[in-house]
Amino acid sequence: LHASDWSNGNLHLCNHYMQDYCNQSQLETVLLETTGERSSVSIRAYRTRNLTAVKACASAIKVLAVRPDQKSAVKGTKARIVVSVHDLDTVIHPKENYCIDYLDIQGLQSLVSRFCGSLEDTYPRAFESINNQLIFIWNFFTGLAARRGFNLVLTAFVERKGNDANWTCGEDQGRFLCNNGHCIDARWRCDRWNNCGDYSDEDRCFDDGSFVVNGLWLGITAAALVLAIGVLMAVALWKCRQPAPVLPT
Predict the structure, then answer these.
(1) Domain region containing 101
(2) Residue 166 belongs to a domain with what CATH number?
(3) What is the pLDDT of residues 167-207, one digit of tens each?
(4) pTM to 2 decimals?
(5) DSSP annotation of 99
(6) Cα(214)–Cα(219) distance, rounded to whole angstroms?
(7) Which of 30, 84, 118, 120 has the lowest CB atom count within 10 Å?
(8) Pair (185, 226) in one structural domain
(9) Total domains present in the chain
(10) Per-residue pLDDT reduced to its tens digit, 58-101
């Protein structure tokens, strides 16, 4: 894959950096498959925050969701894309409050198509494509890499076509059915990213670190409870063994 790598924490997402596509004459195409490790990718502003390495530029890529194997794909489905905004930090005009550095996304099923400013000002934070393709245009006019830019997670999904009563997601074939009806690759379940678009793929998930901490606290609480019960029983037993007081005659 051009201008990408496969390191994104422990998730093995393919990262694409808009910085790498600066001022190219041809529109690069990124294929997003509906199954497998290429069914979700990360789109980021730049791979480095070295001010001498980042320069103002404009870049664009097209993301196309495809079904690589029609024989094994779920019948009666179409591929679309979920876009989850996980980070956003770009320059806006301090007085006029308009976008200076911004990301345009063409093909979203939303009135919102331009992203800039901060993540706190972004709502909603998950969007869907109209069809199976999106075009991302990054206008990086300031060249100020002191800002984080953006981090988007894209996940291909299929969904029921019409009211087909026989349609299934294919959970027995390594797929996961989201609460919103999206059918994604099950490998993205509990990966800390919003791949479904409604966070249902992150429901009832246990973080390894929190699981250990919670287990430790549970053990300490249980031990303290056992100790308290033991003390109460010892006090009760001690009282039972004390000689009865002699009543005056």
Answers:
(1) 4-202
(2) 2.60.120.290
(3) 889 889 999 999 999 999 999 999 999 999 999 999 999 76
(4) 0.76
(5) B
(6) 9
(7) 120
(8) no
(9) 2
(10) 999 999 998 765 544 455 567 999 999 999 999 888 777 788 99
